[in-house]
Amino acid sequence: MELSRRLGEGFNYMACRELFHGPWGWLIQRLGAYSIHRGLPDRQALRMTRRLLTELNRKVVIFPEGETYEHNDALIPFQQGVIQIGFSALDDLQKAGREPACRYCRSR
After folding, report:
1. 60 and 53 Cβ atoms separated by less than 8 Å
2. Strand partners, 33
3. What pTM was computed for the model?
4. Farthest-apart Cα atoms in the chain, separation
5. Which residue blocks in the chain are alpha helix, DSSP H?
6. Which of 5, 20, 38, 73 has the fewest CB atoms lying closer than 10 Å?
């Protein structure tokens, strides 16, 4: 959130659905988070992510590992889902005849 503030841009955050059931769920949503069912092919959340990236030109924060398990020396293997979201968004932009909008990536 600090990076979002410093850049002057709003971010959205993909968060596990369980976070929204707690007492702070309303606040998490107001901060720009939306839910995903962990471990399931949550098509609605994936569509939302692609829409945020391609149509609304938003930045999306995704935590690929999601949760800690009190084993600091063990890393859960990365899954292809996070990478696939990015490639799918690029495909959507290409089909629409648009280039990725990134003010930090333009050649100088």
Report:
1. yes
2. 13
3. 0.74
4. 47
5. 2-7, 25-30, 43-54, 81-95
6. 73
Identify whether the C-beta of residue 34 lies closer than 8 Å to the C-beta of residue 48: yes
Q: Tokens 């924060």 appear where?
A: 61
* Residue in 26, 30, 46 with CA at minimum distance from that of residue 38: 46
84 burial via Cβ count (<10 Å: 0-12, 13-18, 19+): exposed
Residue range 14-71, pLDDT digits in tens: 998 888 988 888 999 999 999 998 878 889 999 999 999 999 989 999 876 655 566 6
Tokens of 101: 């909008």
- Count CB atoms within 10 A of the CB of residue 68: 8
Q: Can you say whether residue 97 is alpha, beta or left, with left for phi > 0 and alpha for psi between -120 and 50 degrees?
A: left
Residue 57's alpha-carbon distances to 12, 64, 81, in angstroms, are 11, 21, 20
